[in-house]
Amino acid sequence: MSIVERALKRLQADASATRTRRLFGKVVQTAASQAAPGRVISIDQDALRVAGLLAPQHQERQISSQYRHIKRPLIAAAMGKGPEPVANGRLIMVASALPGEGKTFTAINLAFSMAMEKDLHVVLVDGDVAKPQISKMFGVGAERGLLDAVIDPTTQLEPLILPTDVPNLFLLPSGTPSDRATELLASERMLEAMSWLLSQDERRVFIFDSPPLLLSTEAPALAEVVGQIVVVVRAEFTEHHVLLEALKRLPESCSPSLVLNQSTQKKRSYYYYGYGAPEGSAATNSGR
């Protein structure tokens, strides 16, 4: 049985992978805004906590502290303040080997944490174009988004970025599904679109929730576009050989960051910034 076949079997057996589809946000009409006049995503943070997608109140301080550790080197690299320049460092992809390891939890919490920075504008991008969970969760599954702008060069991306009622936090839906999603993400048009977006606001950082690396062709294509990659590893779930196989799907030139999720060992908290080169100390201990 291949790794992918085992992954599919494991997915079917994992109850967390069959999360109930709930709405945690909706587009409401408000006063005009620069990104999308009159339209803002209202996010129900209490519902996100109940669903396990934001830290519950009794763990909020602990997990918030962990994400502060996680985001600091990412922000430094994004803003050109790291030890070495990172091309497209403001494009950050959050991935995992398999479903159910916590990549969506990590992407959402990382976006919320970064949005607390006074000098950043954070765009949470639904890059899981085959199964756009974030778009559906926040009530924008039917909205035009990333793929629409890549398919049609005349489509402007800026109006597709929707502000939320969380200060400094925006959302870019995945857009209209396409059978050519992998080819679109790997295209020159995708690179052009991202370069244009980055040029519009030097304080803007994009966080992509991506498909699982071992169960999609879209994730490796997206990995070629971004400048930083965070791979979520679920404690006592992600097998070592599966993680290594997933890392092989990434570009040879990248140095992914590894985040340990759902660790039950209180004093063991590692955040690896760069595969094989431990640096810093933080890990998430809850979420999906």
What this model shows, in words?
It is a single chain. The protein has a single domain (25-273), classed as P-loop containing nucleotide triphosphate hydrolases (Rossmann fold), CATH 3.40.50.300. By secondary structure, the chain is of the alpha/beta class. An eight-stranded mixed beta sheet has the order 5-6-4-7-3-8-9-10, sandwiched between helices. A two-stranded antiparallel sheet has the order 1-2. Helix 3 packs across helix 4 (103-115). 47% of the residues are buried. Helix content is 32%, strand content 17%.
Low-confidence stretches: 11-20, 267-288
Quaternary structure: single chain
Query: From the alpha-carbon coordinates, what is the Rg to the nearest angstrom?
Result: 18 Å
Strand order of the largest sheet: 5-6-4-7-3-8-9-10
Count of individual helical segments: 10
Strand content: 15-25%
Distance between the termini: 26 Å
Helix content: 25-40%
- CATH topology name, in short, is Rossmann fold
What is the structural class?
A: alpha/beta
By CATH reckoning, the class would read: Alpha Beta
Instruction: Report the biggest beta sheet as strand number plus sense, adding barrel if it closes.
Output: 8 strands, mixed
H-E string: HEEHHEHEHHEEHHEHEHEE
User: What is the architecture at the second tier of CATH?
Assistant: 3-Layer(aba) Sandwich
Mean pLDDT equals: 83
Number of domains: 1
How many E-type strands? Answer: 10
Described by the principal axes of the CA atoms, the overall outline is globular
Corresponding CATH superfamily: P-loop containing nucleotide triphosphate hydrolases
